[in-house]
Specification:
Elements lengths: L6 E4 L2 E4 L15 E3 L4 E4 L2 E8 L4 E4 L6 E5 L3 E3 L1 E4 L7 E8 L6 E9 L6 E7 L13 E4 L2 E4 L1 E10 L5 E3 L3 E3 L13 E7 L4 E5 L2 E6 L2 H5 L6 E9 L12 E11 L1
Parallel strand pairs: 3-8
Antiparallel strand pairs: 1-2, 2-9, 4-5, 5-8, 5-22, 6-7, 9-21, 10-18, 10-22, 11-12, 11-21, 12-15, 13-14, 15-16, 15-17, 18-19, 19-20
C-alpha cells in the first residue's frame, strides 16, 4: 500500500499528513482522502492542494492495523495535524490565504486528543457553486449598500450531559473585516482559548466571544491537536477542480 503519510517540521512544530492514528479518511464522508503529495512546504509557507485522484483505501479502525472496508474516494486532499497538542490558556494564530474555486471547504481548527468533541473551529470557509465566499443568507445594511455575510464561520462543539453532540452554532462574518481579494490577500485568524472564555479574531477584529460556563466546562481536555485542511464540500464535482491552493504562514502558539 502506498504510504500516504509523512512527518515534517514547520514553524517550530512537528506535523503529520493524516488524522489521529494515521487515519486517511474523514469518518463520515469518504469521498476524499488525505495525501502527503497535496502538502507543499516552501520556505515558511505551507500550501494545501486538492486533485482528482481516485484510489482504493482500506478503512482502518485502529491506525493502520485492522482493515474493515475498502473505499474508493475520488479526491486527494491536503491536511496537516500537529503531533503535539495545544493546552488551555493559549493563543493560537496563523495567516491564511484562501483557495479559489467552487464548492470548497478550507478550515483551521482544533480537536481534542482524548475524545470528540470538544472542537474549536477557528474558521471553516465555504465557497458556492460560482466560487464565491458569499454563500451565507444573512444580510447587513450599511448605507448605501446591503452586504451579505461571508461564510468564514466560527463554531465550538462539545458534549452535553448525556454525551450528545452540541454546538454553539456556526456564525459567519461581515465582509468589511476581511482583506480583499480574499484569494490573493493574507488574513490573520487568532483564537484565545482560556478556562474563562474563547475569543476568535480576524485581523484583530473580535468575531466570536464565548463565556458560557457550561460550554467552557465541557471544553476540558488533555489538549487539542491543530489541523489545517482543504476539503470538497458535499456539492463538489470534478468539473469544479481548478487547482485550488490554501496557503498558511506565520503559525504560532503563545502560552498565557
Amino acid at each position: 500500500m502506498e504510504e500516504l503519510r509523512k512527518e515534517f517540521e514547520l514553524w517550530g512544530w512537528k506535523w503529520e499528513t493524516c488524522m489521529e492514528s494515521g487515519r486517511p479518511l474523514h469518518p463520515s464522508d469518504p469521498r476524499y482522502y488525505i495525501n502527503k503529495n497535496n502538502v507543499i512546504v516552501k520556505n515558511d509557507t505551507l500550501t494545501l492542494t486538492m486533485d482528482y485522484n481516485p484510489k482504493t483505501i482500506k478503512w482502518y479502525g485502529l491506525g493502520w492495523t485492522l482493515p474493515k472496508i475498502d473505499y474508493t474516494p475520488k479526491y486527494s486532499c491536503g491536511l496537516i495535524k500537529s503531533v503535539d497538542t495545544v493546552k488551555v490558556n493559549s493563543i493560537i494564530e496563523a495567516d491564511l490565504k484562501f483557495p479559489k474555486g467552487a464548492n470548497l471547504w478550507p478550515s483551521f481548527w482544533l480537536t481534542a486528543c482524548d475524545s470528540w468533541p470538544p472542537e474549536i473551529d477557528i474558521v471553516e470557509a465555504y465557497t458556492d457553486k460560482k466560487g464565491s465566499y458569499k454563500d451565507g443568507w444573512n444580510f447587513h445594511w450599511k448605507w448605501p449598500f446591503i452586504y451579505r455575510e461571508l461564510r468564514f464561520e466560527t463554531n465550538v462543539h462539545y458534549k452535553g450531559n448525556n454525551d450528545e453532540h452540541l454546538s454553539t452554532g456556526a456564525v459567519a462574518v461581515h465582509p468589511k473585516i476581511m482583506n480583499k481579494p480574499i484569494e490573493e490577500s493574507w488574513n490573520n485568524f487568532k483564537c484565545i482559548w482560556t478556562e474563562s472564555y474563547i475569543k476568535i479574531f480576524i485581523n484583530n477584529n473580535l468575531v466570536r466571544f464565548i463565556n458560557d460556563p457550561y460550554v467552557l466546562k465541557k471544553m476540558k481536555t488533555e489538549g487539542m491537536w491543530v489541523i489545517f485542511n482543504i476539503w470538497p464540500n458535499k456539492k463538489f464535482q470534478k468539473s469544479d477542480l481548478i487547482n485550488p491552493m490554501f496557503k498558511i504562514k506565520n503559525f504560532k502558539v503563545t502560552k498565557l
